[in-house]
Structures are given as C-alpha cells and as structure tokens.
Amino acid sequence: MDHGVVLRRIVTGALATNTWVVHASDGSDAVLVDPGDEPERLAAAVQDLRIRAIVLTHAHWDHHLALPLLAQLVDAPVLAHRAAAEVWAHELQQARATGHWDAGTATADLLPSGRIQLDPDRELWTGRIDHELADGELVTAGELTLHVRHTPGHSPDGITLAMPGHLLTGDTLFPGGPGLTGWPLSDFPTIMTSVETLLTGYAPTTSIHPGHGPSTTIAAEAPSLPDWRRRGW
Ligand SMILES: [Zn+2]
Ligand SMILES: [Zn+2]
After folding, report:
1. 116 CA distance to ligand 1 centroid (A)?
2. Which of 21, 64, 65, 94 is most open to solvent, judged by the fewest CB atoms within 10 Å of its CB?
3. For every residue of 77-95, which 3-state class applies, written as one string?
4. Which domain holds residue 61?
5. Total tally of structural domains belonging to the chain
C-alpha cells in the first residue's frame, strides 16, 4: 500500500489565503487546513473526500472566516492550538473597534475595496475548539498522519503540520522568509526560533506550503536563515 500524501490548494478571500486539503494517496479520509473564506466553494472542492478534521494553523481572521458554515457542511470537528482562542478574541476586539479586519501591511490598500469590512450579518467562529492541539501531537485521518509542531512567533498559537515530504507552515514560513511579526501578539525572535527548528529539522527536499502564495522547499530557504536574522524581519 502506498500511503503517499496528496495535497489540494484552494485560494479564497481578501488575502488570498491557501486552504490545504490533505489525504493519503490510497484513501479519501482528509484533513482540511485553514478554511479562509467562501465556504460553499470549499465544500464543493472536497465533496469526493471525507473531511475528518478542520485544522487551523493559527486564529487570524483570514484563516477561518469560512469555518462556521464549512464545519456544518462537512460535519467535522475544529482542531487548533490552545492559544487560538486568545488570538481570536484579540482579532475580534480589534475588528469591532475599527470596523474592519487587520490586514497588516495590506490594510490601507484593501480598505477602499470593502473586502475587509466587518460584516455584522456574517456568522463568525465562536472560538470553540473541539480538540486543542499541542506540540508533538499526531492528527490522523484514515492512513494519513499529521505531526503537530508548535511554531509560535507570527502568533502565539501558530502550528506547522508535518507529514512525509511536506510541511504546512501557515503564516510561519514563506518563500523568502518568516511570516510578518508586526502584528499584535507577534515576536520576531520567537518566529526565528520556530523557523530555524523547521529548516534544520527536515530533509532538504521537503516541500513548504505556506498560508498564502506559492510553495517552496527546505533546500531553497535554509541558506537564507542568517540573512533573515540580520535584516530583522
Ligand atoms: Zn496570520
Ligand atoms: Zn494569513
């Protein structure tokens, strides 16, 4: 039996968030990671699979706007790091104070489009986690096993999901460097520790699939680690 891993990427929402769907090549039990937005489209994209769990890499709004409806449509539990509730509470408080979601450096550009306005009629995640994930834990779906790594820094609840040959890094690690740490609750030294752990802990051929944009590999990114430390972001 070949238990290789198959990944699907669906891009949704104002910040073009990557939703990753993973299943074993010989099975249809799957894990859906980061339901960014457009819940009906996400549900349609996985209708041939059985979603056993919805996992959040972290609780920033752009990674789970689709969660309330999608969790109903696919009838799956929500898994996230314990600190996700605190991160989400902070996000909500900020959004209610300003009337829009914090899109980091893209906020000024996106505001006129209306796409990051807080919609009072939209059902949002309650912050309820069905199963809290801790570092070292295993998430399974059929023949698929994901290894949870706590990788804080972009946010305190940041996790990376590791499987043979692939890492789903959320907003922790991208082509060209670590995720942004200008956010509230972010910390640059902390994310660099997380990034170094990932870049030194997996084979060079391992693919890195981030929460936004294209994928990369350990081999492509690891040599830049000292440069990232020096530049400080
Ligand atoms: Zn984020
Ligand atoms: Zn993000």
Report:
1. 14
2. 94
3. CEEEECCHHHHHHHHHHHH
4. 5-231
5. 1
